[in-house]
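note to self: dont lose this again. the chain is below, predicted strucutre after it. 389 aa total, dont forget to put it in the shared folder this time
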Amino acid sequence: MSTDETGQGGASAPTSAQGTSGPAARLVQLITPAGERVSHPEFDFWVRDITDEQLCSLYEDMSVVRRIDLEATALQRQGELGLWPPLLGQEAAQVGSARTLRSDDFVFSSYRENGVAYCRGVDLVDLLRMWRGNAPSGWDPYTVNMATPQIIIGAQTLHATGYAMGIQNDGADSVAITYFGDGATSEGDVNEAMVFAASFQVPVVFFCTNNHWAISEPVRLQSHIQLADRAAGFGIPSLRVDGNDVLAVMAATRVALDRARRGGGPTFIEAVSYRMGPHTTADDPTRYRDPNELEDWAAKDPISRVAALLDRKGLLTEGLQQQIKDKADAVAREMRDGCTRMPDPEPLDVFKHVYSTPNSWLDRQQDHYSRYLASFGDPDAATLEEGAR
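---
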């Protein structure tokens, strides 16, 4: 499914769907866990153009993204990656939002939005470079209009707000979107970003995936109110959406993007989902999480509910399922092959891509390090020294 040139033009957008705040705000849901398509008088408008073919495409996207995640997790367990942040259970939040974006919108994500990266066209092997330890980052942000993952919790929200201020100054109608988790809402960077975004009414979408756990701390400890209600204190309208419902996520994101493009400023989206796996592959969630909770959320799986909806429509054919399986298998093979064949970085590669222009301070460090390597009497190290000079 291509990025959103949604064809919303023509009909007027309903103003009543422009975001709600406060304790009475309802969770937006368009597909139930059982796969029933439920009507919503305000949000149906925003997904009225989604055809059966596009629904099948969203199902494929989520299935492939899950396979990417499972394959990367397996690669880490087998010693091919140093670490991996699983997104299992959050496929609808990532695919549903990413597939609403235009190519000129810019994404600022955390380390878990690998599904968003897939939808933006990031090369499969580039997803793994940093986690394999072969590069400080994975790709050129400007080739896909998505920044490389931010490890510092919440820092990407500041980057997104700053970028959105630049969009505003340029007079463009593109939008910056930033992804972060429920735990990040307690970080100063996120709150400062929201202050600036509200003050200057910049075109930025704050997309918070509430997966219920900030490493080992539950969301109920992070906030005693709904996270969406926090935005009201900054004067930012918010939406609270079923993050396991791909159509509801698309509708909410389109509302936010439409507001931003029309000069209406920022929006905060709370996508209520669940982290089915560990925080990272270095984490053991069984130490702090009730297995009954995991079982409850497994019944709300984002992929199985779309499969159930397609089945109700008579679209979940054996041919479609085989086609998606073949695509997921091919993607997994390509990613695994690229990972295991990835060449090790050279020692002096650490100095590459640090600055865009020559820097004497960095050159001095590189010279010292190359001479240090050469001191071991290794012919290769001597070659490295000569190359550095």
